[in-house]
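Feature request, filed as a ticket because there's no other form

It would be nice if the structure record came with a short human-readable summary line next to the tokens. Right now we just get the raw output. Example of a typical job, pasted below so the devs can see what we mean:
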Amino acid sequence: MKVTQKLASLALAACLGAFPFSPGIAQAEGDAIIEAVPTTVNATPSEVGQFDVRLLAAIREARTKLTNLVEAEKADPNRSQETVPNQASPVKVTIAVWDAASGEVVYVGATKQGRTVTPNSGSRFTFKVLSDNGVNTALALLNSPGSYVVGLVHPIFRSVGTKRKPKFELESVAYVPYTSELRNPYLVEVGSSYFEQKVANVFAEIRALGLRSRAEPSQLLADVVHPAVVKSIIAIEHVGSSKQLVGDLAAYLDRFYVTLATNEHRAYAYAKSTAAARGLVQFIPSTYRALTQLRPDLVVPLDFENGMLDPYSAIKATVALLDYNLSLLPKNLRERYRKDDRALGAYLAAAYNGGPSRVIRAHRAYGENWYRYQARRSSSLKRETVDYVAKYQLVFDHFSTPALHLAAED
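Raw output as currently delivered:
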């Protein structure tokens, strides 16, 4: 079967990569699994709060130390692979805690089981689990005013057993879970700038490579897919329902930007859906595999996991997927929608989530009401896709209107 046929049959449903520090000594609490090197940050920003800059610097330092910890653990020749019978089993974690007054980062070893975190013997800290979400588990400190959780080492569970005899290997990763304490204008601005630059760099490379559009072969790919559509789709991949955005869009976008600022190329790297969609752009393996065969000129990793762990490659794949989905739209509709980026983006968002075949069928059946849910009709979009389009429509103006975008960053 030709690759293009594979893509069409798959419906291409995506279900759809320097602050100054002064030396000091921090203590490693509770037998944490690395010897902690402290972070004392001295910064004198001119336009933002000093605390905000110091917080981000501490986060970056903690993330580096925790990542080094994980790499050293993997490289240990005497290390044995730890396994557990289920995902409710107790696991070892390391929590980075920053003391804003002293500038020190303390690394706390602990055992986590569900929503309970028990620091190792000798720790002065008490933690509360705000949300139990694997590597993105949000933690709060109790009775420790002026201290903040700025990083976490938490294992990923990799299934190596069977349904009858489940077993999971543990792979530790470093991450910075989002909490409301990390939300401040400076981190939002840093995350927004990171996102804008990452997408701009992808489009610049696509243009420099001279990649052609499949939807409009006479044009460059970079001139056919609107960057605002790409940004909108990526941004809504990590919110559950459009209801969460109504009346609170700024809060969600702030969370998205702060996650990017604090984790950079590893932001959302470990996010995985029940359909096996992964990473920042939430591709599924079959879609990514077919796309790399269709567009070898993209120059992205052939391995799905490596592609999703690299946001640069993941965004490139997203642009190419949107272009391919656009090529499946009947020519008269394609020409019509090309005059309206918002409307065209709604089709692309729906196709990204639910597959172009279903979207085209809904358009034929319901015309301008194609994106509305038609109860008990096989030609209707699924509820999930209808909601996905609603999410897209809520965020598109933010990314397409410079005045709104800049206002959100002021």
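Something like this underneath would help us a lot:
Residues 21-177 form one domain.
The two ends are 52 Å apart (CA to CA).
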